[in-house]
Amino acid sequence: MAISGFVKKIRDIMRMDAGINGDAQRIEQLVWILFLKVYDVKEGSWEFDEENYESIIPEKCRWHNWANDNSLTGDKLLEFVNNKLFPTLKNLDIPDGTPTKKAIVRATFEDANNYMKDGVLLRQVIDVINEVDFDNLEESHAFGDIYESILKELQSAGSSGEFYTPRAVTMFMAEMIEPKIGETMADFACGTGGFITSWFKQLKKQEANTADIEQINNSIYGMEKKPFPYLLCITNLLLNDVDNPNINYGNSLAKNLLDYTESDKFDKILMNPPYGGHENASIKGYFPDDLASSETADLFMSVIMYRLKRDGRAAVILPDGFLFGNDNAKTSIKKKLLSEFNLHTIIRMPGSVFAPYTSITTNILFFDNTQPTKDVWFYRMDMPEGYKHFSKTKPMKLEHFDKVKEWWNNRQEIVVEDWPKAKRFSATEIADNNYNLDLCGFPHEEEEILEPMELIKSYQEHRQALNAKIDKVLEAITAKLHG
To answer: Which terminus of the chain has a smaller tally of CB atoms within 10 A, N or C?
Structure first.
């Protein structure tokens, strides 16, 4: 089929269904169907490679048996999906020792939903998906790009936007953290798997043989507590030929920090922790008193520090609030970060990177577990020329990080219009300033505080000047009309 028209075809069909309410539900509906199609293709290859392979899915519920049956449509199809397919997949028996590639099926469907109410339209969607030939390598790779575009749509799909970090950002972070074959990588709130797939792309450049491929595929660990992004992530990794994606369904914060051992640690950590949210009060009990914050991003920072191997590296996205926050927990976390880890670089990203999901300005913190921090370099990444803000039609691109990369390898302090764009601060300076990391930020106009009578006078002068401009424009318009 023409891959380019795939998403539009699906969207047009689903818009006619009364059960689909908005883009978020449309994408969720599409992804569970896609998962079953992709999983069926993967099982075909597993059956070919493994002599005694047995599917965990009962035969009647395997995609090739029901989705290829064109007589199964309308109410009959809805009856099968709602009363046979979903209950079966949600209740699969998963004994201890079940391979990951089988166990993911139940985890994927535990909280999935069928929103469509018209069985004829559902059949049309299934038929469109069946047109994609995943056995055709070229078409399969093309579909990988289509899936990426589906994930991008999440950014403008209401609250679902929190699951997607722009690929330019994940690729930049993965590149700068310098992955190596044989290293392990973790994302403790992995969303749709963007950091993991970016990690893979960096390692693929080093791949030399089948042993490398196996090491690369086994190098990742992810956890996601929300069912929809978990489903997105698993499907994403299957499309990227990861047969046993080590992605767990659960909450990374729900374990006592002091219980982590060396086997729970990783060489590299790439993350965009959820921020602005609040966990159940009981979660705080898993953290030492001085680190027990009520903000999710703070809690994840503590988890990262406890789970980063000696000599390991981390790259983490955090909001401005973490940089300037001075409550007890934030200050303690930053103090631990600077005294026990080497926080060497903070990239201050421009606003609208995560628009329209959020307008909060974010930053990338790069640190390693080698030594206490001596100096922290700050670099302000300004909006690219020709951009007022990022949007769906003008997204952030990897090339927008080119100047950052140039500076990264040849660090110098930069001042633009008397405002620091890049500057180095010592750990002592930061500690003396109560661990405030809000440095090299974006220029802003200083608000002048006037006495009440002076303020009134200033407003009157501005109003008179504005009235004069308006009168002049009106006079010109009137003259032209009379002319």
So the answer is: C
Question: For 318-352, what is each residue's pLDDT tens digit?
Answer: 999 999 998 999 999 999 999 999 999 999 999 88
CB-CB contact of 300 with 274 (8 Å): yes
Peptide bond into 227 cis (omega under 30): no
Q: What's the CA gap between 443 and 419, in Å, rounded?
A: 7
Distance CA 271, CA 256 (A): 20
CATH 3.40.50.150 residue spans of the chain:
155-432
User: Are 23 and 158 contacting, i.e. CB atoms less than 8 angstroms apart?
Assistant: yes
CATH of domain 3-134: 1.20.1260.30
CB-facing half-sphere around the CA of 165: CA atoms within 13 A: 32
- In CATH terms, 155-432 corresponds, of 3.40.50.2300, 1.10.418.60, 2.60.120.560, 3.40.50.150, to 3.40.50.150
Calculate the dihedral angle through the C-alpha atoms of 163, 168, 172, 174, rounding to the nearest 10 degrees.
40
* pTM confidence score: 0.82
Q: How far apart are CA 117 and CA 20, in angstroms?
A: 8
Among 378, 439, 368, which Cα is nearest to 404's? Answer: 378
Q: How far apart are CA 243 and CA 240, in angstroms?
A: 9
